[in-house]
Structure formats: structure tokens, C-alpha cells
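Example for tutorial group B:
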């Protein structure tokens, strides 16, 4: 039997936020490896309707959870992150491995 999709029943905003944190954790120079996962101390800020996240462009509307403490609390409660809202976050090993299924939908590749 295949693994259940979204076994922690994350809502759409939580899934989008975790997808962005996972991608950011994979970018060279953005995160620091720890025993718990990857610590991120700098999060990107939108300029206009989008922002750059490594090699991807993300619509600002898909990133509102990065500034939403409630989203961070929910992800922390489920063990996907260790919140230091709003200054830092550790994406846990569970969070790094969680399949959100959204990377191809919200991480757009562009040349600009």
C-alpha cells in the first residue's frame, strides 16, 4: 500500500510554507546543519508580487505563511520545524523529508 499523502493533515498554507522552508534549507549558504535538521536565520522578503528563493521565483501570495506565527506554531506542534518566530527556524529531519507535493506548483524557475 502506498504511503498516505499528507499524513499530518496540513492545510494549504502550512503545506506551502513547509515547501518554501524545505527549498530554502537546500540552498547553499542559507542554512546551517544541526543535529535536529537545518537552521535558517534569514528568510526572504517579497518585493512586489514575487520573491527569489535560490533558483526559483515564488509568488508572494504563496508565501504568506512565512510571516504568519500561527502557521509556524502548527508546523512546530507537528514536529516539522522548531520555531524561533520571526527570526529563525529549524526545519527538522521530519520536515525536510515530508512530501508536500507542491514544489512544482509554487517554485517557478525563471531566468530573471
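The residue assignment follows.
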Amino acid at each position: 500500500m502506498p504511503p498516505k499523502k499528507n499524513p499530518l493533515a496540513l492545510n494549504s498554507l502550512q503545506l506551502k510554507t513547509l515547501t518554501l522552508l524545505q527549498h530554502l534549507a537546500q540552498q547553499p549558504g542559507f542554512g546551517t546543519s544541526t543535529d535536529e535538521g537545518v537552521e535558517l536565520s534569514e528568510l526572504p522578503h517579497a518585493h512586489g508580487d514575487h520573491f527569489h528563493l535560490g533558483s526559483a521565483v515564488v509568488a508572494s501570495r504563496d508565501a504568506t505563511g512565512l510571516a504568519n506565527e500561527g502557521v509556524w506554531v502548527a508546523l512546530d506542534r507537528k514536529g516539522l520545524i522548531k520555531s524561533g518566530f520571526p527570526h529563525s527556524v529549524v526545519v527538522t529531519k521530519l520536515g525536510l523529508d515530508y512530501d508536500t507535493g507542491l514544489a512544482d506548483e509554487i517554485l517557478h524557475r525563471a531566468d530573471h
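The two ends are 43 Å apart (CA to CA). Compare this with the pattern of hydrophobic and polar residues in the output above.
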